[in-house]
Design a protein that fits this description.
With 287 residues, the chain is an alpha+beta fold. It is 21% helix and 37% strand. The chain is globular, with a radius of gyration of 19 Å.
Length: 287
Amino acid sequence: MTTPTDRLVGLLDLERIDLNIFRGRSPDESLQRVFGGQVAGQALVAAGRTTEGDRPVHSLHAYFLRPGRPGVPIVYQVERVRDGRSFTTRRVVAVQQGRTIFNLTASFHEPEPGFEHQVAMPDVPAPEELPRLADEIRDRLGELPSALRHMERRLAFDIRYVDRLRWTPQELADAEPRSAVWMRALGPLGDDPLVHTCALTYASDMTLLDAVRIPVEPLWGPRGFDMASLDHAMWFHRPFQADEWFLYQQESPIATGARGLARGQIFDREGRLLVSVMQEGLFRKVG
């Protein structure tokens, strides 16, 4: 039987249709638009498949230009911008039905020694001490709404919120714009480091904008705002395995003008900072 992790790996296994052109599947799901993390992950796969493979990605910068249509394939066109002595740069344009929906620039760096320092990981409970997301929602609502049941079936990551989800106006009243979750892929992702990097890129878009919404509305109740990712940036500091637990610490320094900014830091269980993330989202009141 195909598992959610198998489906995620399949989504990241692009079809090469020319030297610098790839085609990715887009599941026909009951969603208004293609999940942004999917497009970012697939675009990074396309970029990585045009490099020699010995230089891991160290950063990406992307813009979500139009909503993608579920069920319609996405073509990724790669421009080989630069192949230098230490750095490789790729630009990727994602096209669906003749329209550009997304673009990404990724830089790859050959590993080399240097000095090190980092911020400390927050002191939080271990993932084994926290409930699974679906179990927490079930405990509060009695059963999962149909949309969340669908999400649970397709979700390829185990997600556990460090702080309990807030549901009532009283609980939201003193909420600060920050969140933290433990995550890991539900099953093995194999040995290819690029697959782990692209899987984590996929996951990085799942909860980051939570930090913007937390002071305003319940994360898993009815939505008062239509939300969309506008751009996404990531810096990869160290190698990692996306099928092992990582802590995603998220906060929002500002929301104004119908846009909210969120930043995240991803740590492994040993407290090593693995990835830094920034994203801006659009928030428009429904109705």
